[in-house]
Amino acid sequence: MGQVRITETAIRDGHQSLLATRMRTEDMLPALERMDTIGYGSIECWGGATFDTAMRFLLEDPWERLREVKRRLKNTPTQMLLRGQNAVGYRHYADDVVLEFCERAVENGMDIFRIFDALNDTRNLETAFKGVQRAGGHVQGTLCYTTSPVHSVESFGALANRLVEMGADSLCIKDMAGLLSPVMAESLVTRIKADHPEVPLQLHCHDTSGYSEMAYLLAIRAGADAIDTAISPLAGGTSQPATETLVAALGEDEQNGTGIVLDDLVETADYFGGVRKRYWKHESNLLGVDAGVLRHQVPGGMISNLVGQLRDQGQEDKLSEVLEENARVRADLGYPPLVTPSSQIVGSQAVLNVLTGKRYGVVTKETRNLAQGLYGKTAEPIAKEVLDLILGDVPQIDHRPADDLEPELESAKKEIGDLAESPEDVLSFVMFPQPAKQFLEWRRDGGGPERELIAAVIGAMAVKEKPSASTRSNPGIQSTNAPGAEWRQFGRMRQMR
Ligand code: CO
């Protein structure tokens, strides 16, 4: 079997999958020095949805999180998830933004970049590859796994070849939805390792369908070099399988196993067990095995979105019709993998097609953009009659979508002005204008406890004057007995913990 490296995902995908990405930096940091001694191949700690949620919901600076994590990881490489031309956001950014992002990420402490495109269009990976290579980071080229009549060992093998040609330092098979069956895992790994024996190959599976441990085992037997797992309190369900399970199954041996001692994981597991309890409000209700994925390949999260859209219209009884239409729309649109954003695009269009009774009678802007090629090339070209229905006379683009984008950094710098204190702040603003502005203003005003906390404390102090809860730097608070400076001090202490 040889050596198998473990990437620990607890502080990125673990809480993103199970706790709505809400874990605060202060709950991560105390675990890191111990984790750094365990012998992980890497620790995934940044990217994906964490960048957005740090500012939007936690009033945290994602860059500071990276620096603080890196400071504590002296032996273990850091790893992140990067959405190609979307960087850590949800639209295509201009090349200057992507290049600068990669450079600043390396500068702030990122080592390994797992870079993917939701449509597996490698043109959308070119700039991010270049940016990371130029900055001296490790490029992990990613295959987003999905199933369809046009996806096969052959097609994924060709994709892997292309990623290696582009200079990937390692490869990853990314199974977002838990669709990768054990047998398919074995076939894919066998194929890719035969073509590229010298390129390390990693698997990233979600346990959604219950396949993941079996897929890992057969993949490793077939020659995979690394797998992603989450420490047990943040494992299972829509997260990765448990680190302890795989360490126990594959063994502790350095040369012929994981190189991790099972007992060494106990403290980290105890720690995150305590952390998870504090986030009970953000627990998803999708625990255990989601057998629906095995039958119709649609993950539970997407089904609940569909049900929600139907309920709004009082048409919940149409769910099975919508699921069938969902499969047809996906086929019409060239079989995109069902992940963000394509799952929302396909699902919404399917609901509209069913509720209006006329297929593509009403077309969303996102469906039109996807058909036009603004997200990239789909696995299979979209048929002419579908294009006519969706686009009318508007032609498809045949080039890389970001070729149409003007540089964005200079104008963003002007727009955000003094609020940005660093190139990192400007990048945060370009990618998430509203949340970043809100965060940067809050920081300029000295930071401080969250709005709800302020309201609760003020309420408990029974001040006469009721402060309005509409802003954080709130004149109502200044006028109470608590001077602003004290609140700001409190905020700093809280952040330092
Ligand atoms: Co994932």
Question: What does this entry look like structurally?
Answer:
By secondary structure, this protein is α/β, with parallel strands linked by helices. It folds into 3 domains: 5-282, TIM Barrel, CATH 3.20.20.70; 298-402, Cyclin A, domain 1 (Orthogonal Bundle), CATH 1.10.472; 412-496, no CATH class. Helices cover 48% and strands 8% of the residues. It contains 23 helices and 8 strands. It has an 8-stranded parallel beta barrel with strand order 1-2-3-4-5-6-7-8, surrounded by 6 helices. It is globular. The relative contact order is 0.11. The site of cobalt (II) ion (CO) has 4 residues, from loops.
What is the secondary structure topology, with strand pairs?
Blueprint (H helix, E strand, L loop, with lengths): L4 E4 L1 H9 L6 H11 L6 E6 L2 H7 L5 H11 L5 E5 L12 H13 L4 E4 L10 H10 L2 E7 L8 H13 L4 E6 L6 H14 L5 E5 L6 H10 L4 E4 L13 H8 L15 H13 L13 H5 L3 H13 L6 H14 L9 H15 L8 H8 L11 H8 L17 H8 L6 H9 L1 H12 L6 H11 L13 H4 L5 H13 L1
Parallel strand pairs: 1-2, 1-8, 2-3, 3-4, 4-5, 5-6, 6-7, 7-8
Helix pairs in contact: 2-4, 2-11, 5-6, 5-19, 7-8, 8-9, 13-15, 14-15, 18-19, 19-20
This protein binds cobalt (II) ion.
